[in-house]
Amino acid sequence: MGTTQLESVQEPKYWHLKTVLSEALDSDFAVGEILPNERDLAARFGVARATLRQALEQLELEGRLQRRRGVGTTVAPPRVGVAVSTSQHEWEGGVAGEAWQPVDCVSEAAPGAVAAMLGTGTEPVHVVRRIRDTHGQAVAAELLYVPASSVPDLSAIDAPSGTVRARAVLRELHRMGVEGQDRSVELGSARADDAKELDRLPGAPVLVVTTRYFASGGTAAVSVATYRADTCRLTFGDSGALEISHDEQQQRQAS
């Protein structure tokens, strides 16, 4: 990475620096390589550390860089392609080869916004936690909120929590069927528990996909799935289903 003094430009200085850094990542660094520390980079480019930090944050958001626990800032690998499907077979996830793996299930009140969508108030609901693993990498963590009314035949003899309980809830939800859904996507910051599951630092940029599933004229379940923003790129297919597709250009560069 050569020394470059930034001249006066119309765009914000950090944005111009981001472009310069992006070009350097393509030419001078390999995937997984650790960048010099912020002090050295700021001196090399003749900018304040605050400006450098803004540029690095933008590159992380775009998936070019990763901040790794105990390592530092590294060049990110190409984005992993995963499809976010709403097909019913996903409810019975957890067997070998399926994307979503149930981790736990507890009974507790849903957060206020989710409770409002479900219409459950402070009533406890089933909260199923699932992890999505793609190509050996955890790319998403999900909390699936299911009211008791959606799974009325759930056996009382099943375990009160844990993976067994999670599978039982998913099985009953699959039997009920889903008639439709709506979805929203927003940029967020990783909470401590999600960051740990996804090998990110707390506060790292993530994509939060909230899906409300409908059945029998009401809301059957609400999913709040947190995806690594540095790993995934969201696209919408012709069917309207949300997908996360490969960054083909980065794949060609990596091959």
Summarize this, please?
The chain is built from seven helices and eleven strands.
Structure description:
There is one protein chain. The chain has 255 residues and is α+β, with helices and mostly antiparallel strands. The chain is 28% helix and 31% strand. It is built from 7 helices and 11 strands. The protein has a 6-stranded antiparallel beta sheet, sandwiched between helices. Mean pLDDT is 79; it is low at 93-97 and 244-255.
The sequence of SSEs as H and E is HHHEEEEHEEHEHEEEEH
The N- to C-terminal Cα distance equals 22 Å
Mean pLDDT: 79
Helical content (DSSP H or I, runs of 4+): 25-40%
How much strand? 25-35%
Number of helices: 7
How many strands, which pairing sense, and closed or not: the largest β-sheet?
6 strands, antiparallel
Chain-wise SSE layout:
Elements: H1 13-28, H2 38-45, H3 49-61, E1 65-68, E2 72-75, E3 82-83, E4 100-109, H4 112-118, E5 124-134, E6 137-146, H5 162-176, E7 180-189, H6 192-197, E8 205-215, E9 218-228, E10 234-236, E11 242-244, H7 248-254
Antiparallel strand pairs: 1-2, 3-11, 4-5, 5-6, 6-9, 7-8, 8-9, 10-11
Helix pairs in contact: 1-3, 2-3
